C-alpha cells in the first residue's frame, strides 16, 4: 500500500512537472516567436525611420502655405522623424532662398522669373516646376459695403494705380459715396502681388495709401475693420473669412460679372484673376535625399484633395499623374 501511494504520488508529481515544463516551453516558444516578431517589427520600423528621417527646407508663398501645411501635417503621421516646417517669406523671398540653395522646395503663386532662373543657374541649382492647384485671386470689401455689386478690370486699375490723388469711391462711380478708400494689399515679395501687378497694375506703382503685408490674415483684419476698405488675396483666405467679408464679382473678358468659386476658377470663367499655384523642387534634393523625394511624391499624390480641403481648386487628375511620372524620372 505504501509502495502504491508512493508510486501514485510519483506519477502525479511527474505529471505536474511535465505539465509545468510544457507550459514553460510553450511560454518560451511564444516568447521566442513574439520576440522574433517584435525584433522583426523593430528592425522594420528602424529601417523605415532610417529611410525617412531628416529635415526638409520649405519656404515661399503665403497663398500656397495652407496646402503645404496640410501636406506636412498628413505626411508626419506616417513619417514622424521627417521635419517639414513651412516658411512664409512670400514667393519672391522663397525664390531668393531657393536659388541660393538654402531650401529644398519653394512654394510659389507665380512662375519663376528669368532673373531667378539665372540666379539658380549661377549657384548650380537645377530645379523642376510642379503645379499643385488653382487659385482665384479674390477682391473683397467690407461686409457693410452695400453699393458695390461688381468691378471691371478698369475699375480696379483706377482704384489701385497711384496717380497722386486721394482715392474716393465716387471717383469710380459718381453714385458711390465720396468717402476715402482704404487699401490692403499683399507685400511686394508676394506672388499674389506679382500676379495682381501683372494683370491689373501692369507694372504701374500701386497706390501709396495701401497697407502692404506678407501676412494675409493682416489684410483680412484690415478689410473687416473699415467699412471703406478694399483688399485682395488668395481664394482660400476669402473662404476662411467669407462670413466677415464681401467678395466682389469681376467682369471677365466675355463681359460677365463672375464671382470666384471652385467651378469658375477651374473653368477659367473667373478671369483674369484665376491662376495656377506651384512648388519648385531642387533636383539634387530629389536624388540625394530620399525623405525629400517621398515628401514630394506624397505632395503630388494628395495635393488635389488637400487643396480642396483648404479652399483651393484641384488640377485634373491626369495632371498629377503626369507630374508623378516626371518626379520618378528625377530619382
Keywords:
Phos-bd, 331 residues, alpha/beta, D-Maltodextrin-Binding Protein, domain 2, 2 domains, elongated, 4-stranded mixed beta sheet, 5-stranded mixed beta sheet
Describe the overall structure.
It is a single chain. This protein has 331 residues and is α/β, with parallel strands linked by helices. The chain folds into two domains: 54-133 and 276-330, Periplasmic binding protein-like II (D-Maltodextrin-Binding Protein, domain 2, 3-Layer(aba) Sandwich); 138-272, 3-Layer(aba) Sandwich (D-Maltodextrin-Binding Protein, domain 2). It is built from 13 helices and 13 strands. A five-stranded mixed β-sheet has the order 8-7-9-6-10. The protein has a four-stranded mixed β-sheet with strand order 2-4-13-5. Strand 11 (250-251) and strand 12 form a beta hairpin. This is Phosphate-binding protein.
Amino acid at each position: 500500500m505504501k509502495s502504491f501511494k508512493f508510486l501514485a504520488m510519483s506519477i502525479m508529481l511527474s505529471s505536474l512537472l511535465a505539465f509545468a515544463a510544457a507550459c514553460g516551453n510553450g511560454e518560451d516558444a511564444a516568447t521566442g516567436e513574439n520576440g522574433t516578431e517584435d525584433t522583426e517589427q523593430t528592425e522594420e520600423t528602424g529601417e523605415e525611420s532610417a529611410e525617412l528621417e531628416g529635415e526638409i527646407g520649405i519656404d515661399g508663398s503665403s497663398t500656397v502655405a495652407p496646402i503645404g501645411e496640410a501636406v506636412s501635417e498628413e505626411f508626419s503621421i506616417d513619417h514622424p522623424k521627417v521635419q517639414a516646417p513651412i516658411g512664409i517669406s512670400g514667393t519672391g523671398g522663397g525664390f531668393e532662398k531657393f536659388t541660393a540653395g538654402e531650401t529644398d522646395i519653394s512654394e510659389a503663386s507665380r512662375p519663376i522669373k528669368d532673373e531667378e532662373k539665372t540666379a539658380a543657374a549661377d549657384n548650380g541649382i537645377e530645379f523642376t516646376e510642379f503645379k499643385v492647384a488653382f487659385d482665384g485671386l479674390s477682391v473683397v470689401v467690407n461686409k457693410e459695403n452695400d453699393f458695390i455689386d461688381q468691378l471691371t478690370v478698369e475699375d480696379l486699375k483706377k482704384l489701385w494705380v497711384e496717380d497722386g490723388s486721394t482715392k474716393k469711391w465716387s471717383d469710380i462711380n459718381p453714385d458711390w459715396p465720396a468717402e476715402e478708400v482704404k487699401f490692403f494689399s499683399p507685400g511686394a515679395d508676394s506672388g499674389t502681388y506679382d500676379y495682381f501687378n501683372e494683370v491689373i497694375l501692369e507694372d504701374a506703382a500701386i497706390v501709396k495709401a495701401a497697407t502692404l503685408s506678407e501676412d494675409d490674415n493682416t489684410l483680412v483684419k484690415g478689410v473687416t475693420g473699415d467699412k471703406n476698405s478694399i483688399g485682395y488675396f488668395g481664394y482660400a483666405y476669402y473662404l476662411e473669412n467669407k462670413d466677415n467679408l464681401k467678395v466682389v464679382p469681376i467682369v471677365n473678358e466675355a463681359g460677365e460679372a463672375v464671382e470666384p468659386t471652385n467651378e469658375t476658377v477651374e473653368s477659367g470663367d473667373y478671369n483674369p484673376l484665376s491662376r495656377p499655384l506651384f512648388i519648385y523642387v531642387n533636383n539634387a534634393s530629389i536624388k540625394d535625399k530620399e525623405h525629400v523625394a517621398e515628401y514630394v511624391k506624397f505632395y503630388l499624390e494628395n495635393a488635389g484633395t488637400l487643396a480642396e480641403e483648404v479652399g483651393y481648386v484641384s488640377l485634373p487628375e491626369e495632371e498629377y499623374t503626369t507630374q508623378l511620372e516626371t518626379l520618378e524620372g528625377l530619382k
